[in-house]
Amino acid sequence: MKVLCYGSLNIDFTYEVDHFVQKGETISSQALRTCGGGKGLNQSTALAKAGAEVYHAGCVGEDGRFLLEQMEASGIHTEYVTVLREVRTGNAIIQNDRDGDNCIILYGGANHAITSAQADAVLDAFEAGDFLLLQNEINHLEYIIRKAHEKKLKIILNPSPMDEKILGLPLEMVDYFVLNEIEACQILGCRAETQGEEMAKLLRERFPAAAIVLTLGGDGSVYADREQFFRQPVYRVKAVDTTAAGDTFTGYFIAALLKGLAAAQAMDIAARAAAIAVTRKGASPSVPEWAEAESFLFP
């Protein structure tokens, strides 16, 4: 069983700042780091470091060839990544403040240059039972979902960053939703005061054929499907950079399922890996190896 991550590939420019810049304000940064990122690349990296056989599909510009080398060094198959001459690689401008929080500006670039012909060629290499992981940083999502559903791939959707495009997708074809409270609330159109567990139940009612993984920040996460409903506590650490926490959680959760672990075990190892990731700077470089996530001693 294989997993295909069809997702974004970015060049991340991360500025370390005392506080996030305000309207009309000019501030200086203490440092600048340039590295590979994008939710797609980060989640593929998490899958690979967790031991999954992961294939990445997407597009980069000529300026992003080093991302392919980075992914291959992590054990990710890159033969389904197209290099385009006429478009720049997607990028992100990230502010990382003294508390470890981030704010991000995305430029889609080559991530929005995927064609239906490319999607056909990629998906034709996979078969029923393989996993497909998607986020909301590429174009042609609806086409990819419908094609994957026809082929009976297991579709995992992380609807981030959330926008109105998600609401127009055939969400009934999704097998796993991995999302946070804000994304869940927008999909459900629910009241702001709706709490995490109630939200997970509403999602389960809306999508009865799907499994729901709802992340709740410092309150942990909730898993819900037709047979199970439980909460996963968070592992508390001192955060220095939260950029790839959610992506690490997503990649590890899927990798654990591929290893045959039960949902409760998958949620636990995902929480452990995400906690380790926030103690390190950077996006994909912060993702731990499986053995470390399994054995790490938390305070």
Structural write-up:
With 299 residues, the chain is of the alpha/beta class. It has one domain (3-7, 39-88, 112-295): Ribokinase (UDP-N-acetylmuramoyl-L-alanine:D-glutamate ligase, 3-Layer(aba) Sandwich). 32% of the residues lie in helices and 24% in strands. The protein has 10 helices and 13 strands. The longest helix has 15 residues, at 263-277. The two termini are 36 Å apart.
Question: Main attributes?
Answer:
299 residues, alpha/beta, UDP-N-acetylmuramoyl-L-alanine:D-glutamate ligase, 9-stranded mixed beta sheet, 4-stranded mixed beta sheet, 10 helices, 24% strand, globular
SSE topology sketch:
Blueprint: E1 3-6, E2 10-16, E3 31-37, H1 39-49, E4 54-61, H2 65-73, E5 77-84, E6 90-96, E7 102-107, H3 116-123, E8 131-134, H4 141-150, E9 154-157, H5 164-167, E10 176-180, H6 181-188, H7 196-206, E11 211-215, E12 221-224, E13 229-232, H8 245-258, H9 263-277, H10 290-295
Parallel strand pairs: 1-4, 1-8, 2-6, 4-5, 8-9, 9-10, 10-11
Antiparallel strand pairs: 2-3, 6-7, 11-12, 12-13
Rough outline: globular
User: What does the radius of gyration come to?
Assistant: 18 Å
The CATH topology annotation reads as: UDP-N-acetylmuramoyl-L-alanine:D-glutamate ligase
Instruction: Give the strand order of the largest sheet, numbering strands 1, 2, ... along the chain.
Output: 5-4-1-8-9-10-11-12-13
Helix segment count?
Answer: 10
> Could you give the distance between the termini?
36 Å
What share of residues are in beta strands?
A: 15-25%
Helix content: 25-40%
Average of the residue pLDDT scores: 94
Which CATH architecture would you pick? 3-Layer(aba) Sandwich
Contiguous low-pLDDT stretches (5 residues minimum) are none
CATH classification, class level: Alpha Beta
What is the fourth-level CATH superfamily?
Ribokinase
Order of helices and strands: EEEHEHEEEHEHEHEHHEEEHHH
Largest β-sheet summary: 9 strands, mixed
Number of domains: 1
